[in-house]
Specification:
10 helices; disordered N terminus; alpha+beta; two-stranded antiparallel sheet; 375 residues
Length: 375
């Protein structure tokens, strides 16, 4: 068996017993196996459709500079035709290479808790797991890492809605339905399943940020079919704090411009092809049609439009695409801080607060001076 030749000398001998793996080692093996399986498949791991851009000149890497750039982007977008006008003159706009805009833009407040295990293997394995209390969501992203040649990350994601009665707490995950647990990749089912209270999952990095954004649209032709790609351009600013440290020097600022594909609308049917590629029929030989695939929509339609938009922004505003530094930087600092007794104590306290049914994830948030209302 397995290429071993049985001889008279070793016949009847039992294979040496392998040491029993701990729960942590079994989890690590499962995660690594899952990532290796994904890395060889084109139909499961797709590029995350966003680019993060920062100033090419490090001396200009500051918040005011990015606010100035985003102001210029908004002023430029204000000259685009509105969406209704654009659809009325769609063919003219395609030939002219014009874009058009959504009428609204605004700010999006964000609060996130990136999760880790006690040995920090989850982030090191390319897994990003986070709670989004303001959206009441558990988000898991995994897959191949970004490189200098391809800052658009290739990874998959799962978004699981939590219970509104206890917004954004780790304890909510124990109450997920079987159908939601089964929607997670297998290694994560135990990690975030009904036994989540027994798993040593901790808050690692807390992020508070604001995102001002505007959505524009670019028309694109693929195999003679017209698609409208909705691109969200945003200015991100905020601060991230390692949970295991109270030292302000371990905090770091978030400042960048982002461009992300939000929708790929099939102009013929109005369907968002990112969500329902199977509803889009393309010609396939004489009098034959075929369904689009998710990979095709992402790789052949969305990604080329995204890359061109990123190139345009970089050229116009002296920006460069960067690898996403936030999770890695935050976890690196958190890991160092958690090497001492006080840091581990702080991570444990943060975990207990998130699992507790007696406290709210909102209780520790700072929203400024509250308005006192008359009773």
């Amino acid at each position: 068996m397995n290429g071993e030749i049985q001889t008279a000398e070793n016949a009847g001998e039992e294979d040496p017993q392998k040491p029993e793996l701990s729960a942590e080692q079994m989890l690590e093996q499962a995660l690594e196996g899952h990532l290796q399986a994904l890395s060889g498949t084109d139909d499961e791991v797709f590029p995350e459709l966003e680019y993060k851009l920062q100033a090419g000149n490090p001396d200009k890497h500051n918040r005011e500079h990015y606010r100035h750039i985003f102001g210029r982007i908004k002023r430029s977008a204000s000259t685009f035709p509105t969406i209704s006008t654009a659809f009325n003159r769609l063919e003219d706009n395609i030939r002219a290479g014009k874009v058009f805009r959504r009428l609204t833009h605004g700010k999006d407040a964000r609060y996130r808790i990136d999760l880790t295990d006690k040995d920090h293997r989850i982030p090191e394995a390319g897994i990003q797991a986070r709670l989004e209390p303001l959206k009441n969501v558990l988000m898991i992203k995994w897959g191949m890492s970004a490189t200098e040649d391809s800052p658009a990350l290739f990874r998959a994601e799962r978004k699981v809605k939590l219970f509104s009665s206890a917004i954004g707490r780790l304890g909510d995950i124990r109450r997920l339905s079987d159908s939601k647990i089964k929607a997670l990749p297998e290694p994560f089912r135990d990690l975030f399943g009904k036994k989540a209270a027994d798993k040593k999952i901790f808050p690692g990095v807390e992020t508070r940020s604001d995102r001002e954004k505007i959505t524009i649209f670019r028309p694109a032709l693929y195999q003679d079919r017209l698609f409208i790609v909705a691109l969200e351009i945003a200015q991100d600013e905020g601060v991230a704090s390692p949970v295991a440290s109270k030292d302000p020097k371990d905090n770091y600022c978030i400042d960048q411009i982002e461009v992300e594909v939000k929708e790929v609308i099939d102009a013929q049917t109005g369907v968002n092809a990112l969500n329902h590629p199977e509803l889009i029929s393309l010609a396939d030989g004489k009098k034959k049609t075929r369904e689009m695939t998710e990979g095709e929509v992402r790789l052949k339609v969305a990604l080329p439009v995204l890359r061109q938009e990123a190139v345009n922004l970089c050229n116009e505003h002296e920006l460069v695409p960067v690898l996403d530094p936030k999770p890695k930087l935050g976890f690196d600092r958190n890991k160092v801080a958690a090497e001492n007794k006080e840091g581990r104590k702080m991570m444990k306290a943060a975990r207990e607060q998130l699992i507790s049914t007696d406290s709210s994830a909102w209780s520790g948030l700072q929203f400024g001076q509250p308005m006192v209302l008359e009773s």
